[in-house]
DNA sequence: GCAAAAGTGTTTGATATACACCCATGC
DNA sequence: GCATGGGTGTATATCAAACACTTTTGC
């Protein structure tokens, strides 16, 4: 299992990383999942892209640390934040590092509207979540795992609206589902599904300016944003 | 949030703990969930019961550490082992400790047959999972969380058979479900549910010695035991 | 034969899907 | 008026729960 040969009395280092998702329109105008990565500026994996994160401070809670990272790298606030998994294989650096690092990974969602304001710099760039380059450490696997969790969670819980602004049409909400799940949904059935769960309520307003019948606007009903 | 006042450059300590479940017949003969706890022999929470666990060794994988703990405290091997959650609130010791400890918690299942051989000593005792005393740290919450995960997992995955020995009757399997979920299930519907999932197959044998029609024996079909 | 659990069959209701259709607006 | 997506209605399939019934053993 382990390829580590050096033994020491040192304890493993603890880091917190965050997989951040948002939705952005791609070239053909459809929404697509995007995630920000940071370029590593030192060994191991120097120059390669990696998940944003850093060592856990003694006086900082895990979720707080994840939020911090998000703010520091993108300038954004998470609309949703949840612990994903703790990754700690002895050989997860693939032999590229002597140091043992255990990463507690969170995953976060930010609004599509806010995400447009996100910082893009030489060392922070957004990628399409399904077209990532080869990342440092085991970070490709981690993103895959987070994607699976997001898709799964979308189906049994009701977090889709966090991608949207406060008021939205059901067509917009459906577009979120379709982008995340990667398949088309029947508008009629989708409407019934959403209405039956009681997660949205009408605002009373409609969205004007479309070429056709103006759709009703909805808002999300009160629902706990997770942190644990 | 935090009640910590001291700041230091120290890094948080990393520990791995394990919530261990098995099924044991209670006084009325019905199966009930039991879990082993260890008595703390030093501050904080000296003398109180706590989850088995210990600091993570630099050259040890997370799941391996959890297995180790299980073996050391009970003498048993896990039949199922999965990461539960990383608990790391700054104040999770409730002010009783100056040290910051982040615990990566696993949950494990051991067979009811094996569990009878488990060690019971002055400092290791088995408790009914729903009648625990007040535990050290936030361990009561952790066990509750693990219980929820077990019940949930039982319904959508097929891990119930790990409590049983290799060959079992459907009535025994149903008894496991009933004990974990805490409600009775229709024998006929239960049979169909199990058969439709294809998780069991007939051994060809029947169980003799009952007062009535001898039930068929089944074994679990090949299925991945998780570790990640 | 009778009791008791094993095992089978049938009915019913809830829910998801497919798809036909009407509605309201901009042009 | 007509194109277009918004929104509603309805038939069908699938599946879970309830429950009646038959089978096979020990006594």
UniProtKB/TrEMBL annotation, chains A, B:
It comes from freshwater metagenome. Residues 37-143 form the Nudix hydrolase domain. Residues 163-219 form the NrtR DNA-binding winged helix domain. It holds the Pfam family WHD_NrtR. Signal peptide: none annotated. This is Unannotated protein. InterPro entries: NUDIX_hydrolase-like_dom_sf, NUDIX_hydrolase_dom, WH-like_DNA-bd_sf, WH_DNA-bd_sf, WHD_NrtR. CDD domains: NUDIX_NadM_like. SUPFAM superfamilies: Nudix, Winged helix' DNA-binding domain.
């Amino acid at each position: 299992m382990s390829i580590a040969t050096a033994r020491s009395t040192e304890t493993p280092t603890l880091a917190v990383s965050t997989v951040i998702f948002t939705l952005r329109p791609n070239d053909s105008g459809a929404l697509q999942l995007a995630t920000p990565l940071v370029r590593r500026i030192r060994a191991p994996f120097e120059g390669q892209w990696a998940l944003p994160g850093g060592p856990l401070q003694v006086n900082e809670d895990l979720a707080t640390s994840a939020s911090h990272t998000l703010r520091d790298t993108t300038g954004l606030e998470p609309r949703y934040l949840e612990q994903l998994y703790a990754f700690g294989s002895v050989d997860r650096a693939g032999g590229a590092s002597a140091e043992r690092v255990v990463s507690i990974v969170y995953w976060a969602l930010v609004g599509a509207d806010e995400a447009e304001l996100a910082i893009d710099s030489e060392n922070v760039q957004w990628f399409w979540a399904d077209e990532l380059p080869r990342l440092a450490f085991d970070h490709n696997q981690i993103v895959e795992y987070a994607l699976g969790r997001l898709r799964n969670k979308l189906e049994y819980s009701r977090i889709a609206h966090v991608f949207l602004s406060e008021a939205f049409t059901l067509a917009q909400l459906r577009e979120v589902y379709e982008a995340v799940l990667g398949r088309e949904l029947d508008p009629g059935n989708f409407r019934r599904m959403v209405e039956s769960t009681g997660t949205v309520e009408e605002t009373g307003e409609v969205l004007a300016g479309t070429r056709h019948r103006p759709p009703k606007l909805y808002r999300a009903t009160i629902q706990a944003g997770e942190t644990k």
